[in-house]
Design goal:
Blueprint lengths: L2 H10 L6 E5 L11 E7 L17 E7 L2 E7 L4 H4 L6 H9 L4 E10 L9 E9 L24 H14 L4 E7 L8 H10 L3 E3 L3 H9 L3 E11 L10 H24 L6
Parallel strand pairs: 1-4, 1-5, 5-9, 6-7, 7-8
Antiparallel strand pairs: 2-3, 3-4, 5-8, 6-9
Helix pairs in contact: 1-3, 4-7
Length: 268
Amino acid sequence: MNDAVSTLIEKLEGRTPKVALVLGSGLGGLVDEVENAIHIPYGDLPGFPHSGVTGHAGKLVSGDLAGTPVIMLAGRAHYYENGNPAAMRPALEALAGTGIEKLILTNAAGSLEPEMGPGSVMLITDHINFSGTNPLFGEPTDGRFVGLTEAYDARIRAAFEAAAQATGTQLHKGVYMWFSGPSFETPAEIRMARVMGANAVGMSTVPEVILARFLGLRVAACSVITNLAAGMTGAELSHQETKDMAPVGGQRLATILKRMFADGLADG
C-alpha cells in the first residue's frame, strides 16, 4: 500500500464510498451540499496535485450527497500546467486503493453546436484525444494497452439520462475533444474538430478517463458548456467567460447529480 492510499484511508476514518467525483469549473459549490463532510487539503495527501487554476479549490471532501457516500476532488491538475499528462495518477490511484469503483468527471467546455449554448450540460459519450500525449506514456506493464471501446460506462450514462428526465433538465450528448491548452483553439481547429466528429472541446478529463480505465474504474463524464467555440460568434474567448458561465451550467449538472444519487441510479 503506497503512502497516498494509507494516508487517505486513515483520514477517511472508516468511510468506504464507492463513487468519486472530480469537480471541474462551476461545480465547486457542490462540496457545500455534502453532509457529514470531512475536508482534506491536497497538501495533506502524498502525491496529490496542486492546481494553479482559479476556481479549483485543491481539496478532497468525503461525506454524503443526497444520501449517497461519495468522495469529491474539488480541483484537478491540468496537462497545460506542467506538461505532465499523468499528473492526476497519484490521486486516482489513491481513490482506487480505498475501494472507489465509479468515477464521475466534470469539466468546462466550448460547444461546437449552436443549439448547445453557454449554460448547457453535455453527457460525454466518447472522446477524441487530440493532444498528442497520453498519461500512460512510460508505463512498463502491458496494462498500458487499455481498451477504450467502452470508456464511458453505459449504465452510468443511462442513470444520468434518467435523472435528467426526472428533473426536467435538458441533457445534451456528444463527443468531447481534448486539446492540450492553455491557449484556446483557433477557428480553423474548431472547423477541423467538427469535421472529425467532436461536439465540444476542452483541456481536461481525457487523461483521467484513460487513467481510470487503466485502474479498472467505471467512468462517466459531463461537460458544462461555457461558450461557443472559436469562430462561431466572432468574439474572442477568455478564461473569464469560463468563470462567469460555468456556475450556470454547473447548477444544472448539480441538479442531475443529486437526483441520480437520491434515486440510487448510480448503483447499477
